[in-house]
Amino acid sequence: MTYGVSTSSPLPKIGDQAPPFTAQTTQGKINLSDYEGKWVVLFSHPADFTPVCSTEFMAFARKNEQFKRRNVQLIGLSVDSLSSHLAWVTNIKEKMGVEIPFPLIADLNTAVSQKYGMIHPEASETATVRCVFVIDPQQVIRAMIYYPLNVGRSMDEILRLIDGLQTVDQHRVATPADWRPGEDVVEPAPTDVEGVNQRLRGDLSGTDWYLKKKRI
User: Where do the annotations place substrate binding (predicted)?
Assistant: First the structure.
């Protein structure tokens, strides 16, 4: 049963302009455009007052200052009502001692969820799966991560992803597997024969012409 809501909206893709929205949240009405010039991590959760979601919200809250230092705005979302959201975040503060400092979208009509393809009918026809959308300061989708309903997310991995995206933008490089800030990055591969020959004339110990690392 889908309550008359279409679930056939196409999924946004990396490189797409992030779908604009206006929404009611625990911190008042917001527009996505309010955050131009900032990075945005828009993440959905299945439901309020659920155990895994509660642990995630506390984890995001505890890392909020680290996100802010990276010029990142966190925005949560589920298809619960505003009153449910307010009761839940109040309960988390009262019972667990953690204050939720970022807005939580009340998407009861699934308007935002549908735009972002957050409802996967084979998982649940009415609850959002655990999506993470990373949106850059130009409001372009730069990364997406999907988790099932029953597996919690890693805040450290989301922070690492932000660090990687900001590093490649600033230095025009790529990051290798398991990269962490301060480690070597990967230079773009040559695109012509002369570029290959220049690489071969350089120091490629431990790598080859198509893989060259450097410290920034």
Answer: 130
Reported in sequence order, the residue ranges of the chain that DSSP labels E, i.e. its strands, are 22-25, 28-31, 39-44, 72-78, 104-106, 130-135, 141-147, 185-186, 213-214
Catalytic residue from among 41, 42, 53, 119: 53
Q: What is the pLDDT of residues 168-180, one digit of tens each?
A: 999 999 999 999 9
97: part of which helix (H) or strand (E)?
none
User: 3-class DSSP state for residue 118?
Assistant: coil
Residue 199 is labelled as binding a ligand: no
pLDDT value, residue 71: 98
Minimal CA–CA distance to 48: which of 123, 133, 107? 107
Active site residue 53: yes
Structure tokens at 61: 């809250």
Residues in contact with 216: Cβ distance below 8 Å, sequence separation at least 6, in sequence order: 167, 171, 173, 185
Residue recorded with tokens 């505003």: 82
- Tell me the pTM: 0.89
